[in-house]
């Protein structure tokens, strides 16, 4: 009987325990994407600005006592910058919205790259990530005629996006899937912004659905990685 008391809690309880802090984020995500799909802008606009703060709250809740550690700090910085990008038109009315959005999200991706490549890396870059280089070339080739003076900023931003997706492939399956969804979101957004015939009624909800899935999976993946490190007595 004594030996059974030393066994860790059954792992089947862990996913539910980690998911609970992200319930508010999940609920607002559903409300926001649904509002976009039905054209309820009065609901979609404010709920968009709740997304990243609620995701950050979920991270802090799940990792209470660990928020001073490097991975958590980098994740929260990336979420904060993403929030500024989400509300670029609101927070920076004095500057071009697209430019400020690219700047904020570019800095968020830089934080993610450091997190995935230097802090949480578990394995080398897998060969299949060559698809991200092909994605970058194809996206620029298609959008080139419509980018005008934004060609170079978008090309650079695309490299940063691809870098995040490649880096995420080193940090575990959940984070890699999150990185792929994040890349998908920005790809759809690029067509929404720069392709004249883009059906905004369709692309808008898809952008936010893939974005919230990507950010949520990345955050949950980091929480799981931190929990695993804590269980093994890791120092990161």
Structure characterization notes:
This protein is 76% helix and 0% strand. With 236 residues, the chain is mainly alpha-helical. It has one domain. It starts with 13 loop residues before the first helix and ends with a helix. The N terminus and C terminus are likely disordered.
Low-confidence runs: 1-13, 231-236
Rg (C-alpha, Å): 19 Å
List the secondary-structure elements in sequence, H or E. HHHHHHHHHH
Q: Beta fraction of the residues?
A: under 5%
Number of helices: 10
Which structural category do the helix and sheet elements fall into? mainly alpha
The geometry reads as: globular
Task: Give a brief description.
This protein has 236 residues and is mainly α.
Task: Sum up the structure in keywords.
236 residues, mainly alpha, 10 helices, disordered N terminus
Any chance you could write out the topology, listing elements then pairs?
Elements: H1 14-19, H2 23-38, H3 41-62, H4 70-86, H5 88-91, H6 97-119, H7 130-147, H8 151-168, H9 173-194, H10 200-232
Helix pairs in contact: 2-3, 2-10, 3-4, 3-10, 4-6, 4-10, 6-8, 7-8, 7-9, 8-9, 9-10
């Amino acid at each position: 009987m004594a030996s059974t008391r030393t066994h860790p809690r059954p792992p089947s309880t862990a996913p539910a325990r980690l998911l609970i802090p992200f319930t508010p984020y999940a609920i607002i995500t559903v409300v926001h994407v649904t509002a976009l799909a039905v054209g309820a802008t009065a609901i979609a606009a404010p709920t968009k600005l709740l997304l990243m703060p609620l995701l950050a709250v979920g991270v802090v809740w799940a990792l209470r006592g660990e928020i001073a550690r490097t991975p958590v700090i980098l994740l929260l910085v990336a979420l904060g910058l993403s929030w500024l990008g989400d509300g670029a038109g609101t927070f920076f009315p004095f500057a071009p919205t697209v430019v400020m959005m690219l700047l904020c999200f570019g800095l968020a991706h830089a934080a993610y790259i450091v997190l995935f490549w230097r802090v949480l890396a578990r394995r080398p870059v897998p060969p299949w990530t060559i698809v991200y280089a092909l994605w970058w070339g194809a996206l620029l080739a298609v959008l080139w005629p419509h980018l005008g003076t934004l060609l170079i900023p978008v090309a650079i931003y695309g490299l940063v996006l691809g870098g995040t997706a490649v880096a995420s492939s080193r940090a575990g399956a959940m984070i890699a899937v999150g990185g792929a969804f994040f890349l998908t979101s920005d790809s759809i957004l690029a067509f929404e912004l720069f392709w004249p015939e883009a059906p905004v009624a369709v692309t808008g909800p898809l952008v936010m659905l893939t974005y919230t899935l990507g950010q949520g999976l990345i955050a949950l993946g980091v929480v799981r990685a931190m929990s695993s490190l804590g269980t093994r007595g890791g120092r990161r």
